[in-house]
Amino acid sequence: MRVSVFGSTGSIGESTFDLLSRSAHHVVALTGGRNVSRLAEQAKLLNAELAVTAYEACLPELRAALEGTGIEATGGTQALIEAANRPVDWVMSAIIGAAGLAPGFAALAQGATLALANKESLVTAGPLLLAEARRHNARILPVDSEHSAVFQALQGEDIAAVERVIITASGGAFRDWPTEKLATATVSQASSHPNWDMGQRITIDSASMFNKAMEVIETREFFGVDPDQIEVLVHPESMVHALVGFRDGALMAHLGAPDMRHAIGYALNWPERAALPVARLDLARLGALHFTAPDPARYPALRLAYEVMEIGGTAGAAFNAAKEIALDGFIAGAIGFLDMATVVEDVLTEMSARQGLGNIAVSLDNIAHTDTEARSLAAHRIAAGRI
Ligand code: NDP
Q1: Distance from the CA of 308 to the center of ligand 1, in angstroms?
Q2: What are phi and psi of 327, to 5 degrees?
Q3: Separation CA 326–CA 382 (nearest Å)
Q4: pTM listed for this prediction
Q5: Pick the CATH number of 312-384 from 1.20.1250.20, 1.10.1740.10, 1.10.730.10, 3.90.1150.10
Q6: pLDDT tens digits, residue range 338-358?
């Protein structure tokens, strides 16, 4: 297969790189951001046709690193789109943030299979992305471990027979902290995940459960189930990634070691199952698995996800944008850990009251407009200390 990886220097990108380095797939494009030396190294090791940095200012360094290799180097936002237009069979979408949207659309427009890790795509533009896939007869395969697990549990099943979808959450860095202590949580405490090795932003989003909130919205978009069919369970071992409950009462669970190469490998090899270099679970040694309902006071982000789905329209874009700014504010030390949810809730409330978010049609222009407005409102609140 001809494959490209967008966001190849990140956490998901490195896991994808690992699998590709063990495969015979032909690598067309690899893209990164500022980590130019690693991008060049990956491009050389995988003998890629093209390496792209998202930042034009980083292009001279990338060119220098690839000199004499015959690998093309390009840079900037437009270069990312051009890379996504290159004929391929399979594309990994693992850029973080809203910047991951455009290459995903471009990949679908050429009919490529889109392995989707980038959460923002479905949260902000779910209906558009799915329509684009239908229009070009292209396929989207979920890469988030929970959605991959649901997708796997649904193979050969009728979605009409699904009663509920349960996605699990590790509970993040603070699952055992007393709730009163959460307000004092520091960035370094929030940046260490008990089970998964991921980038800093998604690790903090796991501690606050904004990550799980995004996944709840993604579940609704991708599988078309109603919000009241989606449940979240705290499962500290992170071995069961999701469960699908059917109308006959059966529950199909997907288990695996917490290693993203499983979901990435499944998307890379689908509909086949290929051997993967991931740890095998020893359930007898594990002995017990635990599940609890999430405490709403500890994880207000989860409640906000259901509000976003209730509002509809471009509420997902407002939610994601306000969350990104609130996260920036927390990382910069401008606001506390619990203030992130307050900022996001205030932005949603204000934009719903002023602009009727739910009535705004989901188009790329409206998403961009809502995103800008929500970022500005969130930043303003943080700067003015109105939290
Ligand atoms: P990382 O922060 O580790 O990596 C992000 C990648 O995107 C890097 O290659 C980075 O380049 C690049 N990048 C950053 N900013 C831009 C930009 N503005 N334009 C283009 N490229 C950019 O993220 P993760 O790998 O953790 O996550 C990627 C996506 O997958 C996210 O949406 C995340 O929510 C989702 N996801 C992640 C999981 C995980 O286990 N990590 C699990 C499931 C989903 P560079 O580093 O060179 O600057």
Answers
A1: 24
A2: -65, -45
A3: 8
A4: 0.95
A5: 1.10.1740.10
A6: 999 999 999 999 999 987 899
